[in-house]
Queue: 4 jobs
Job 1
Amino acid sequence: MIYYFLPIRNRTQNTVEYTAAIDDAYSIIYDSNVHLEKHELQYLRQFRHLFWFPDAIPQKYVFGTYDNSANLEAVGNIIVYRMINSSNGDYVKFVQDGDDLRAAYGLHAVKRHMFERETWIPTNREKFLRKWKNGRYLNCLGLNISNSSDKPVIPDHYVNNVAKFRDFLDSYSAVPFLFGGTLLGWYRECSFIKDTTDVDLAMKITSLDPRMLKNMEKLNDLKLFWILGKINDSLEVSVYSANIKIDLFFMYETKNFAWVGGMMISEKKKFRWVYPLISQICTGDLLGRLFHVPCNIEEVLEADYGNWRIPHPTANFTWYKSHKNVHEAGYWNESEWDDAYKWPNACHEVIKLDSSHRFTKGFPIKTDGIRGHCQAPHAECSNSILEVKFCTASLASREPIRLTARGGRNIDIQEMLRRAEMEKVSEDKAYNAIWVNGEE
């Protein structure tokens, strides 16, 4: 019989009972030669609920409990952590006298008779130890940087969508962590940066399970948008959820530094962002959900932004040149391109512009390429509606896709789309287009 809970609850009756046969994932054989001294066993009898964390600390017996009244003083080789669930049940904190504070999400346990009593133990020792090792809990700063009157582009509740992607990656033993502007927003402001338009995560390439990439195409709530780069060079994945993009960067490590890659698709140009090595991963709470973060947060942020305490408006921040640590890294050649640029679920749409330079979002279509072109009745598209066909990859990649209008003026299609996306444009609502090298 298996008792399963996610996360660990403070009442055993809240667990779900399964009578299905135990599979390999739950067939954990713990050492049968575990022995405690008589006074240590006596000490453990005070706890109503007891969880054993084997191998958490070498040569120590580490336990956890939800009992608030219990005495947690160390006895012999025993160390006991107090366990506290987050308010929304997403994760559990492990608190010990002193500075040791840890947290973990997605824990599973079974009940066994050990230490002369009923004791909960992890169903998967390797997974638990990975979460414990990467579980040191850090607090964000909560600096008052953004204008409180600004309406955020990404609502707070979107953190639940990000947590779904977190759980998907976790199911493949990955350790994703907040990255880029999302890491900055968490650490500096304990939130998403108000004018940011996407979410950034990263994970080390060494923990990639190739099945994860294949199964991303089967996700329901998260839509795989594209896969950029290759496993051995500059891999990056983007998914969409509720019309907001989540970028997952893969971090490569050398002896002295780490880096992630990116590309300017229109030119097949590679870029690299260089970081100090991230030797330890910690955890932090973002809007009620637990995420991993680099333990050396400030070093990582300084590499990206320099003085990260000074806000940089997203509108003035260019992804391929504004970072302090970005470098050009050559080009993809033609023989590599089909493997380095895959967007299986990118959709195409139509933007309609009339002679007053206003537009509405159109309907999905099928077309080739990402360049806009004229489909109006008049050849020069003057005094008529101009339909611009584009691939949404141009929006997601943040590269300028421009259409030349009559008189030599250029329409920045990308900026129009970004504005439309932020304002949740409906088909019957129009907004001013952005004109480059001309008047609005």
Note: The radius of gyration is 26 Å.
Job 2
Amino acid sequence: MYGSFGNGQRACVGRPFAWQESILAIALILKHFNIEFVDPSYDLRIQETLTMKPGGFKIRVRPRQHLGIALNVNVKQSEKIPEKLKQQVKTENLRPMSILFGGNSGSCQTFADILV
């Protein structure tokens, strides 16, 4: 990736933006999908064409389960937690607990809402 943006005084000013966009894209993929190797015993083989890449590397991608909550963070609070996700818990002898969250992407709040 560095070669395509150049170096020194004439380096592309868009490199930080491209890195940020690629990190966000990878984060969204990891947030919404379970990723696993097709062949768990895969050993890295470098394949060189115009760029370097892992030769024969294959992955299996599956949507994460129960993401209906996280995919739409603008839903009313009463609609966020489906009944099928709630479990009956005996509440006697339990002490109060605070669940705090931070972040601006909505996933922390969604996870906190699931815990509540």
Note: Residues 1 and 51 are 9 Å apart (CA to CA).
Job 3
Amino acid sequence: MVLEPKFDGYLVAAIGGKLYNVLGEPAPRWLKAALFMAGVAEQVYEMMRDGFAVFLEVYGRRLTPNGYHRKHKRDYDAVVLDIGIVEDGRVRILPPEKAADAADIYGLRYVPYRFEDADVLTDPPMSLAERLPAYQGWEGYVAKVYAAHGHRLPPDYRVKQLGVLMVKARWQSLGNLVVH
């Protein structure tokens, strides 16, 4: 399992030369402008030309819906959350170690992540909420399981096609985090 901080911003999906929001709709003008103001638009478009799909979080002092980044040093910033390869009209997400290398080649910052062995259970098992304190100052964290690491993923919600399953744990939903 891969754990990474949950940024408090707006998702941009860059696929096939176009930018989309979290709902898969064309990105509004202000979101496109934020990508340029974060200084990463050229690199993102270059990656798309080279056949990659890039999923980024655009955030900063001016882009923090829940206020977690009000004290960030930049008004606009961006971090790559995932990178995929587009083949036959489908996106296949790369495992984080390969995605981080690809982001670095193009001069983009990749989300900091760490591995936690999902096959080794703690005694008692750690709940999603019990992992939150390690992410003080963030909106929460994201736990991801990648097919490339040998995990069998469920076929629904396009998880099997994308090759990654995500669970987001947020401070604001602390009372509802009961899954083990």
Note: The first strand starts at residue 2 and ends at 6.
Job 4
Amino acid sequence: MLPSAEAAKLYQTNYVRNSRVIGLLWAIFTILFGIVNVTIFSQPYWIGDGVDTPQAGYFGLFHYCVGDGISRDMACQGSFTEFAEIPSTAFKAASFLIGMSMMLVVTCIGCFSLFFLLSTSTVYKICGWMQAASGVCLVLGCMIYPDGWDSDEVRRMCGEQTDKYSLGACSKSCWLRARREAMPNQILRFLNFHVSVFMKYQSILNISLEEGGHPRL
């Protein structure tokens, strides 16, 4: 049997290695999640026309283009800076929430620089709360967005059968991708939690080694 000091050092080595691997995976997934989040926010094809739609066009969170039914030209309106031009209150709320989700993830990535200033566990906790808030905003935005499908502009493109949470003849590819994006956020929170536990346990091991005792759980 290994002496207590050697056993503690072995435990510490294993936990440091495991925590670094999980931390690296967490950082990579956070950056990828941020890229996808920015793409989802700026993507104008949350809902789009289909084979049976009366007119061509597409809708994003805040930008949309709808044809006139005669030519292939489309009239485009809306931008995030022109909030009043967004055709639905639900679209406005979804734009704000998805935008907040994006900003939280981008800020979380920026917080990586805090590893040089603060303890590792503190940075993971800060980023964990940001990712949790980002996930909540993302889910709420995706839930609220279909409430605006009954607006006149959407009905003009998708048909009169379009209603709240019923898109009629239009497609909803990007909206579905945004919903699926909530799952990677849960994975990030899972990894963040485990890295935080590893960091806490590593500090306990360090204290045990300094005191010359056994590792305490």
Note: Residues 204-217 have pLDDT under 50 and may be disordered.
